[in-house]
Amino acid sequence: MGSRPLLDFFWTSPVTLESLSPAPSTLDAEALGTLRGEAERLFADALAERPPDERDETLTLGDAIVHRVAGTGVVAVLFPTDMKCSECITSDGRGSIFFLYAPADRRIVFQTFGHPEWNPAGKSVRVVMPRLYFRICGDPEVYFLADYHGPWEEIRYAIFQMRSGLRMLVSWGG
After folding, report:
1. CA of 87: how far to CAs of 55, 56, 90, in Å?
2. Does the N terminus or the C terminus of the chain have fewer Cβ atoms within 10 A?
3. Rounded Cα gap, residues 134 and 53, in angstroms
4. What torsion, rounded to 10 degrees, do the Cα atoms 53, 83, 28, 164 define?
5. Below-70 pLDDT ranges, the chain
6. Which of 65, 9, 67, 72 is nearest to 39 (CA)?
7. What's the total number of domains in the chain?
8. How far apart are CA 114 and CA 171, in angstroms?
9. Which residues constitute the domain of residue 110?
10. What is the pTM of this model?
11. How many other C-beta atoms can be found within 10 angstroms of the C-beta atom of residue 105?
């Protein structure tokens, strides 16, 4: 599918927008194990982007929050994180790891680790947190509007295609 329906949404009226409600879902132990392993790898990659004196963080993953939107063939999976450095008194629970996962194929469609104050030079760190699932004008594709925050208080929003994880549109950031 091209970007035409998305452009129509922003440049013409009236446009019918169908809001979709996600349903809580679950994944089997094998799928969760795969995602937890990838989450650890994403964290390690992001940690490597930090200065050497800031790489002593440890990561604890929270329970997976899994949402399914009918007709997409993928689920949205969010792992809250808790991080702590060896010299810190308190932990930092502001990070998250997000996946789009196709259970039938046992395939990760999209993945990212995000934290609002990671490292200004971080290239792989990006918070993605879906806020609204929708269809446009009867198009069978499902999209979602998400927080799309960068590694150092860069606040943006983005629209993604759920089935593919393709980022369709990103707001200006600041």
Report:
1. 12, 9, 9
2. C
3. 43
4. -70
5. 1-13, 54-56, 86, 88-91, 93, 173-174
6. 65
7. 1
8. 17
9. 4-170
10. 0.85
11. 10
HSE (CB half, 13 Å, CA atoms) of 78? 17
Q: CB atoms < 10 A from the CB of 78, how many?
A: 18
Q: Which of 19, 133, 29, 30 is nearest to 76 (CA)?
A: 133
* pLDDT, tens only, 70-92: 989 999 999 988 777 767 666 67
Do the Cβ atoms of 147 and 154 come closer than 8 Å? no
Amino acid letter, 17: L
User: Own/partner pairs for 142-148, CB < 8 Å, 24+ apart?
Assistant: 142/20, 142/69, 142/71, 142/72, 143/6, 143/168, 144/69, 144/76
Give the phi and the psi of residue 156 in degrees, each rounded to 5: -140, 170
